[in-house]
Amino acid sequence: MSNYDLIVVGAGPAGLLAAGRAAERGGRVLILEKMQQPGRKLLITGKGRCNITNNAAIHDFITHVYPNGRFLRNAFSRFYSDDIIELLQKYGVEISLERGGRYFPASNKASDIRKALLKWINELKVQVLTGYSAEKLLIENNILKGVQTNNQKIFSKSLVLATGGKSYPATGSTGDGYALARQAGHSVTKPLPALVPLETEGVIAKKLQGLTLKNVKATVWINGKKSSEAFGEMLFTHFGLTGPIILTLSRTVVDEMHKGNKVEISIDLKPALDEQKLDSRLIRDLNEYGKKKIINVFRYWLPASMIPVIMELSGIDPEKECHQVSSKERKKIRFLLKNLVFKVSGHRSFREAIITAGGIPTNEISPKTMESKIVSGLYFAGEIIDLDAETGGYNLQIAYSTGWLAGDSCLTGI
């Protein structure tokens, strides 16, 4: 095959941005994608709606990125949320802003984002080969020369590894890029599932499966010590806990569990009320409905499906009248409303993880160019880098920005 200015391995959002930007600068660009269609992972982002990006300012954005958000300052200064929105609008995507600063296509179709990016690279005459896997990097004297794919060698001045992590392997993210990076002399921080549902001990979650709670606070406890917390929405499942705040906290949980630590999550069902105010509320209601059965008053405090579960945990006779509830029993109710505790027994697999934590350490990559500090001409973009963020469009923006910067940098001087 002919020589190229750039080969991009992986046709996800990072790879497409790298290829498009390099082609904009006049480069001859080839994308190798092992799946049969490019941009497949984009189709499942945001539950099929695609949370394109977030309108957070850069200084705020990087606080949502782990383990080293500062690494992205230069990439974000070169290509940021307004830039990807402008690009997508140019190709006919109407965009709407929702709560939490999250941008979505107005159509609620992730396929519109994929279609726009593919139209962009097609107009720029980027060549895309699907069904092609990168088997081996061609490196001489720590200089990238090309890649071997499907038993043939393709030569290029530069190469961007944008193979993703290990989350949602059915879309092609199976960790292939890590082996290629190791071949080039890079280390790999152990990949772990992030933004992933959590499994819990006991039957409480199973009894509550399908119930969504809004405006609650979840707190992570590591070996009995408070670690992190999040406020918002969560969901009970047959195996445990999920939903936005649980996914956000899962990074800490998974990391600590793999270190062998004991992890618990407590749910505050009444975060707007401190202990004293909640106690006053309980006293008032118990007095007001003195002759009613306690189980009938619980409906003022909890969703219907939670009542039998909390009643059982409290140990109070559901037939007991409110005026018979003792101070000790009231304190038990108050405790459960503020501290519904779950012991975390595990987490779901990469098949259910939205993103991958771990990957190529940022100290082995130039933040100004995304070029490898080990092999000249080798660049990294997207999820393969040891960067991951909370939900809200942050992870896709990391992919766009690192991809764009890699594609821009590799054409400098060519």
Average per-residue pLDDT, rounded, comes to 95
CATH architecture of the largest domain: 3-Layer(bba) Sandwich
User: Unreliable stretches, pLDDT < 50, 5 or more residues?
Assistant: none
Distinct helical segment count: 13
Radius of gyration: 25 Å
Name of the CATH first level of the largest domain: Alpha Beta
Shape: elongated
Q: Major β-sheet, in short? A: 7 strands, mixed
Helix/strand structural class: alpha+beta
Helix content: 25-40%
How much beta, percentage-wise? Answer: 25-35%
In CATH terms, the superfamily of the largest domain is FAD/NAD(P)-binding domain
Tally of domains: 2
Indicate the CATH topology of the largest domain: FAD/NAD(P)-binding domain
**What's the number of extended β-strand segments?**
20
* End-to-end separation: 20 Å
